Amino acid sequence: MPFPLAHCIHQVLAPDGKLVGAAPDLPADQLFAMYRWMVYGRLYSDRMVALQRQGRIGTFGPLNGQEAASVGLAWPLQPADWLVGSYRELLSYMVKGVSPLALAETYRGYVGDGYALDAHCLPYQIVLATQVLHAVGIAMGMQYDGKPDVVVGVCGDGATSEGDFNEALNFAGVFKAPIVFVVQNNGWAISVPRRQQTAAEYIAHRGPAFGMPGYVVDGNDVLAVYQVVQDAVARARAGDGPTLIEALTYRLGAHTTADDPKKYRLDDELGEWTARDPLPRFRTYLMNQNLLDPTADERLHEAIAAELQSLVETLEAQPPQDAADLFDLVYAERTPQLNRQRADLLAELGRE
Ligand SMILES: Cc1ncc(C[n+]2csc(CCOP(=O)(O)OP(=O)(O)O)c2C)c(N)n1
Ligand SMILES: [Mg+2]
Questions:
Q1: Secondary structure, 3-state, 113-128
Q2: Which of 264, 299, 340, 351 is flagged as catalytic?
Q3: pLDDT, tens digit, for every residue of 87-141?
Q4: How many other C-beta atoms lie within 10 A of the C-beta of residue 228?
Q5: What dotted CATH number matches 9-321?
Q6: In this structure, are strands 188-189 and 192-193 parallel, antiparallel, or unpaired?
Q7: How many whole angstroms from 147 Cα to the centroid of ligand 1?
Q8: CA diameter of the chain
Q9: How many CB atoms are located within 10 Å of the residue 270 CB?
Q10: Is 226 a catalytic residue?
Q11: Secondary structure of residue 179 in the 3-state scheme
Q12: Is 186 in the pocket of ligand 1 (CB under 6 A)?
């Protein structure tokens, strides 16, 4: 058998923050920066949920609980590499260089023209798993051009049941595309539990079936996720082909602000996963290493809160997006059907 089946869950930090594996060789400033992004992601997500509740933005999908996976999967990427994900990957996108303001604008209905492209991310995808095909396409294109860059393509556990996900893995395996697939298995696809997506024990077991290694990693352990993705990125860059990584994590919040998880999941499960929260785990580790103390942590939280306050002020000072953009930003040239719909809407708004 060319690749071993994932037989263990890779972990560096236990839920209590104790070191149980070899820590990656990262300097103190990078460890602190990882932690900063994790805190930023949590506070940003909370702030967006609050804004939605006040009717100040549209639907938002919180990432609470997934901060370690989100930061760890993006950390190994270089600026020229690509990161392609879904609505849940907002924090990964920020780590890759997409502006938090540009992302907030999307929740307010403003879709800037190619807002993510400069950071080498595709606009986040909502149609499940389609982005995984796009990610493989980019990887194959770069391979064809002889570029040394790699792609990380991300989706959720539910998305792995789509044909697109499996077709993408098949192409990547056959053509040895320079790509790392990361599945953020957060236990749920809205109200559908992970066990109803596949009868296999792990989603990562599908890797060897497509001719690539499959690894399972503790997705609430930022150092473990970083290590596994870093190794896979190095393999892809060396021309050794794709890897499938399953990050075991949990969505602590609702699917989106339009969902109420109390309707379909038990408090016990939430309690178990709250005890594995990635933030206190990494915070305890950093404090044990004398890289953080309670005062510095408090200052960090205050600084981020102030940053978010000013982000919201900038966001709300912007004029609403022009309704015509709804039709004008779809294709390079509008179709006759779009022209009709556009005229109808503008007439209704009294703007003929
Ligand atoms: C092709 C497609 N089918 C259905 C939906 C509706 N939908 C949006 S999110 C979602 C659940 C996705 O779950 P998962 O892939 O696990 O990602 P998560 O939201 O948990 O991050 C569904 C069914 C969609 N967006 N696209
Ligand atoms: Mg999910």
A1: CCCCHHHCECCCECCC
A2: 264
A3: 999 999 999 999 999 999 999 988 777 789 999 999 999 999 999 999 999 999 9
A4: 27
A5: 3.40.50.970
A6: antiparallel
A7: 33
A8: 68
A9: 17
A10: no
A11: strand
A12: yes
Nearest protein Cα to ligand 1, atom 25: 127
For the chain, helix (H) and strand (E) counts, in that order, are 13, 8
Measured in angstroms, how far is the CA atom of residue 83 from the centroid of ligand 1?
A: 19
**Nearest by Cα to 285 from 272, 297, 270:** 297
For atom 3 of ligand 1, the residue with the nearest CA is 128
Please give the pLDDT value at position 1. 35
Q: At 172, list the tokens.
A: 């990547």
Q: Where are the domains of the chain?
A: 9-321, 322-352
The strand pairing partners of 247, in sequence order, are 184, 217
Residues in Cβ contact with 188 at an 8 Å cutoff, skipping those fewer than 6 apart: 157, 158, 194, 251, 255, 261, 265
Residue of 128, 162, 203, 250 to mutate, ligand 1, most atoms within 8 A of C-beta: 128
